[in-house]
Fold Ras-related protein Rab-23.
Amino acid sequence: MLEEELEIALKVIVVGNGGVGKTSMVQRYCKGIYTKDYKKTIGVDFLERQIELDGEDIRIMLWDTAGQEEFDAITKAYYRGAQACVLTFSTTDRASFEAIREWKVKVENECSEIPTVLVQNKIDLMDKAVVSFDEAEALAQSLGCRLIRTSVKEDVNVASVFRYLANKCHQQMKQQYNAATPITQPTISAFSPTFQSKATNNTIQLTRPSVKRKPLQKRCGIF
Ligand SMILES: Nc1nc2c(ncn2[C@@H]2O[C@H](COP(=O)(O)OP(=O)(O)OP(=O)(O)O)[C@@H](O)[C@H]2O)c(=O)[nH]1
């Protein structure tokens, strides 16, 4: 593959109990459609969407996993290599809220720590809520991740979930790249006559050599 063809691609997994709206969320985001029929996911489904972030194209590859425990053995094989995760529960399903920690552990067992967002779906059904606002906030805080409330049905906040994760991963990639780029550190010494400092007000500014960098997609893209 030519270097120019490389791009940033993110593997995102969507997990949570059956019926919380994972398939609906992925379909809404990638195809712009919503159906009220429920057809349980068998194993894993895959869809993708391309977005632009800071002037760069990012391909978000969404793995929609089955919520039923019977598929655990199959789905966990698809967790591997995921760079971000959506933990989903439903406003009207208490058990799905209580299962979130377990989902997080399952993901961590395969992927260690990856950018994660907690999604409370079906907020159009707030009048039938079985999880309070505070409980959801407290869970997000204890898991150390952002809580985003969505209604896939009404198309509220769905795009924000994936944009938030893409942004987080993009930032991480940039940091990793910067950390991997060696900075020439001049020796600061009274006996180092060749060292040139930019001294202003007794402050020595160490300047990074101006290296012409390649666009990020060429540096980080692995797909
Ligand atoms: N009211 C409401 N219903 C929703 C919303 N999102 C999804 N649903 C409905 O919830 C049901 C289950 O949605 P799915 O997307 O199939 O759920 P899932 O999490 O993929 O389920 P599994 O495949 O069993 O893991 C469907 O009837 C959807 O139409 C929402 O935001 N509001």
